[in-house]
Design brief:
By secondary structure, the protein is mainly alpha-helical. Helix content is 46%, strand content 5%. The chain has three domains: 17-73 and 136-186, Orthogonal Bundle (Helicase, Ruva Protein, domain 3), CATH 1.10.8; 77-134 and 211-332, Lysozyme (Orthogonal Bundle); 343-400, no CATH class. The protein is globular, with a radius of gyration of 23 Å.
Length: 409
Amino acid sequence: MRKWALALAMFVLGALYTGQAFAASCRNSGSYERWLEDFKKEAAAQGISPRVIAAATPSMTFDQAIIRRDHGQAVFNQTFLQFSDRMVGGGRIPTGLAKIKQHADLFARIEQKYGVPAPVLTAFWGLESDFGANFGNYNILSALATLAYDCRRPEFFRQQLLDALRIIERGDQRVEDMIGDWAGEFGGMQFTPTDYLKNAVDYDGDGRRDLIHSVPDTLASAANFLVSLGWQRGQPWLQEVHVPSNLPWQEADLSIQHPRSKWVAWGVKSVQGSLPSDDLPASLILPMGRRGPAFLAYPNFKAFLGWNSAMVYSTTVAYFATRLAGAPNVDHSGASAIAPLSAQQVMELQQLLIKQGYEGVGEIDGKIGTGTRNATKKAQIKLGLPADSYPTAELIEKLRAGGSGGSNR
């Protein structure tokens, strides 16, 4: 699910970093063999049996290709429409609907117990593993051991490796079953070993929590995880809306909630059916600014962000779930009026924001993350631009000029 890997991301448009830039930040010391021996002693001290350690040891090999993959990952930007069209397009919607029909009884039982509906679970299933068709082809124990030895994030991956051994110790999986993503996630929902231990359930009653071979265990475990992230039974998660041109754009922020009645009073309308004028809290999110698609995000949307904190991914999987629940294709009509910034432009924007005293931008990395969007909003307010938090070339020009006011259009 890669929620820990926001900065390492999945959204392919253009590379910004090289492996050398990452590798320069730290240096490994000591042999891998010595590290592995020390790790096995720690595993034994934490209750991992000699049997499991012995069975896993041949798989805990060092893989330089994993280091290159981790150090050399490109960090990318992709607009919501680019990403969602790619991830939700093709056959994913008809396949998802077929899966819902195929497993209708199972989904009904899971919703009765956990309160998570079939479209939500199916959307995660589709995006994480293509409905169980693609788990990855890396040796999880080798990948995790390699990353736990490496200097970049050793403590995180050391814990993941220990938890992977605990999964084997419990009998949930065998050593030879531990195949998945290069960063250690595996199974139909691409859980990390730690999330697997905490949230997996044995829903088919065979005594194992098997998120690789068992569809019931896979889907019920995802529902259990979403409940742990705050999912509320019977509540919506995301709804596409049309927004008026005179909306107070500074209110469009995931951190700001208003009752739906307030959004209705401001002229926000649902693209499908009516928007109730009630007290249900909602945030307005504009993933591509005021000219792009607009959504009301309800409290359940936080569960999507808890699963994966990358906003474009979370919005896409939530949108996918609405499509599986019957919503129409997202509005593309404003896309032609949007000129996404290049990676180089985003880096220049970040430099200008920092130079002019806007806090919270974070690293100058060319990514439009939460920090950059928050700082963009502050700059837009100061410069009299529509404060929709979406970076534009116009904003860069005004910042280059040292900050001159504009019209709130």
